[in-house]
């Protein structure tokens, strides 16, 4: 059941960090900016969501005095539109489009317009473009003002009102659907899953009856909902085991998620460095090779995925080998300090800049799934070695990332303790608190 209740404003700081039970699900991360691995299975259910409607005030005058006497022409971006086509519909010549695009870095946002957004053309009495406004997001409007034959650009930012909201749900059909039923959008559900991906395999470990609770910020402009903000805390129950996480911003301004005792929710390595559909071959020292019909140890795991699926570096390290051989096809070996080594075989190709000696970060794309070498179909063959000995990537104990720093421990405890207590006590309905 999803319900809602409100915290007094004085409790907002706590609510913002309150543990938020998370909805894990099988979803292909479209993103990397977070390059973290989340399963691709829900990508089949994932649909593109149209942009939210924008409050009318966002497109209102930023300075009424400057716009008196100007004629307004609003153009809604259509599917398949180009800037040239939009300017033509507005009756604005191509030379003005060129001048607008010459207005500096702020003009770069016009290259990423998408259907549903609006461009507001303000024309003088001679029909010449005097000002152009483009709403890049509910919180950012780019304004172009004519100065002679050129345009100057300025970015106008708006701070949203933040409402701390708790949602919870139980997995029945799928994690993705549970997130929808709880009022979460696809992106927020994915971010929640990414918090716990180091402890829960969202392809193989999720079962009916698992449950989640989540605290996050809803964003409003002029009392109109415009999107989801940061996740503040989460809780996820998986097969009798409970995981909790709290968001904490350290003294250097870096935000991460930690367990209640201050351990990082991240591990030094990803459990599976690819968005896979299924495991086509397990770690098996006694495996009979499907091509040669003889006993050949399978010292890794084969993750089946379509050709071209990105493959991520499982941890920070240095590329030791990036080459091609007949059995391995295109393959990469990464050395992670002195103790750990990971291998990635049968790639279709390497990512740009991947070569021997290059340093990589966890989650960085290093190559793409293929079927090169002695492969019977498209998959990533992934190996994990500790002190030169092959280990099962699914069961090997992974080292932790760094915990909360000693200098930040008191601050973390002061925030996490009350929030987790509030989470435990607030299992009834949703609670809402307004923040600025």
Tell me the layout of helices and strands.
Layout (H helix, E strand, L loop, with lengths): L4 E2 L5 H6 L46 H4 L3 E6 L6 H7 L4 H8 L16 E6 L5 E9 L2 E8 L2 E8 L3 E10 L4 H7 L4 H11 L14 E11 L2 E15 L2 E9 L5 E4 L19 E4 L19 E4 L5 E3 L4 E9 L3 E8 L3 E11 L8 E2 L4 E5 L9 E8 L2 E3 L17 H17 L5 E5 L1
Parallel strand pairs: 1-22
Antiparallel strand pairs: 2-3, 3-4, 4-5, 5-6, 7-8, 7-22, 8-9, 9-10, 10-11, 12-13, 13-20, 14-19, 15-16, 15-18, 16-17, 17-19, 17-20, 20-21
Structure description:
This protein is α+β, with helices and mostly antiparallel strands and 436 residues long. It contains seven helices and 22 strands. The protein has three domains: 5-51 and 161-265 and 405-435, Nuclear Transport Factor 2, Chain: A, CATH 3.10.450; 56-137, Nuclear Transport Factor 2, Chain: A (Roll); 278-391, Glucose Permease (Domain IIA). The strands form three sheets. Strands 12, 13, 14, 15, 16, 17, 18, 19, 20 and 21 form a ten-stranded antiparallel beta sheet that branches. A seven-stranded mixed beta sheet has the order 1-22-7-8-9-10-11. A five-stranded antiparallel beta sheet has the order 2-3-4-5-6, covered by helices on one side. The chain is globular. It starts with a strand and ends with a strand.
């Amino acid at each position: 059941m999803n319900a809602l209740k409100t915290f007094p404003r004085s409790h907002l700081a706590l609510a913002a960090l309150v543990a938020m039970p998370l909805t894990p699900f099988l979803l292909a991360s479209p993103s990397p900016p977070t390059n973290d691995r989340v399963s691709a299975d829900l990508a089949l259910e994932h649909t593109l969501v149209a942009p939210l409607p924008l409050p009318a005030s966002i497109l209102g005058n930023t300075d009424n005095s400057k716009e008196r006497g100007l004629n307004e022409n609003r153009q809604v971006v259509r599917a398949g539109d180009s800037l040239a086509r939009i300017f033509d519909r507005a009756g604005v010549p191509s030379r003005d489009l060129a001048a607008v695009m010459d207005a500096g870095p702020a003009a770069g946002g016009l290259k990423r317009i998408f259907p549903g957004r609006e461009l507001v053309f303000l024309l003088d009495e001679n029909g010449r473009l005097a000002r152009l406004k483009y709403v890049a997001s509910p919180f950012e409007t780019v304004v172009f003002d004519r100065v002679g034959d050129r345009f100057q650009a300025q970015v106008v930012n708006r701070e949203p009102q933040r409402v701390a909201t708790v949602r919870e749900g139980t997995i029945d059909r799928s994690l993705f659907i549970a997130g929808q039923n709880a009022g979460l959008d696809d992106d927020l559900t994915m971010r929640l899953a990414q918090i716990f991906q180091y402890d829960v395999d969202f392809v193989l470990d999720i079962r009916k009856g698992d449950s989640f609770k989540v605290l996050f910020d809803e964003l409003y402009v002029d009392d109109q909902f415009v999107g989801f903000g940061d996740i503040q805390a989460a809780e996820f129950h998986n097969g009798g085991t409970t995981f909790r996480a709290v968001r904490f911003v350290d003294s250097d301004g870096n935000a991460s998620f930690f367990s209640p005792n201050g351990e990082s929710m991240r591990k030094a390595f990803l459990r599976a460095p690819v968005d896979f559909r299924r495991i086509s071959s397990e770690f098996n020292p006694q495996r009979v090779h499907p091509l040669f019909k003889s006993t050949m140890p399978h010292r890794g795991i084969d993750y089946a995925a379509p050709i071209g699926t990105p493959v991520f570096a499982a941890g920070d390290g240095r590329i030791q080998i990036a080459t091609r051989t007949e059995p391995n096809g295109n393959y990469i070996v990464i050395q992670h300090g002195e103790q750990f080594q990971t291998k990635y075989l049968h790639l279709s190709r390497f990512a740009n800049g991947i070569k021997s000696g290059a340093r990589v970060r966890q989650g960085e794309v290093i190559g793409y799934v293929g079927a090169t070498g002695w492969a019977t179909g498209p998959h990533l063959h992934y190996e994990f070695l500790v002190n030169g000995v092959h280990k099962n990537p699914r069961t090997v104990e992974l080292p932790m990332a760094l915990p909360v720093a000693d200098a930040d421990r008191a601050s973390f405890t002061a925030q996490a303790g009350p929030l987790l207590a509030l989470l435990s006590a607030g299992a009834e309905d949703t609670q809402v608190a307004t923040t600025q």
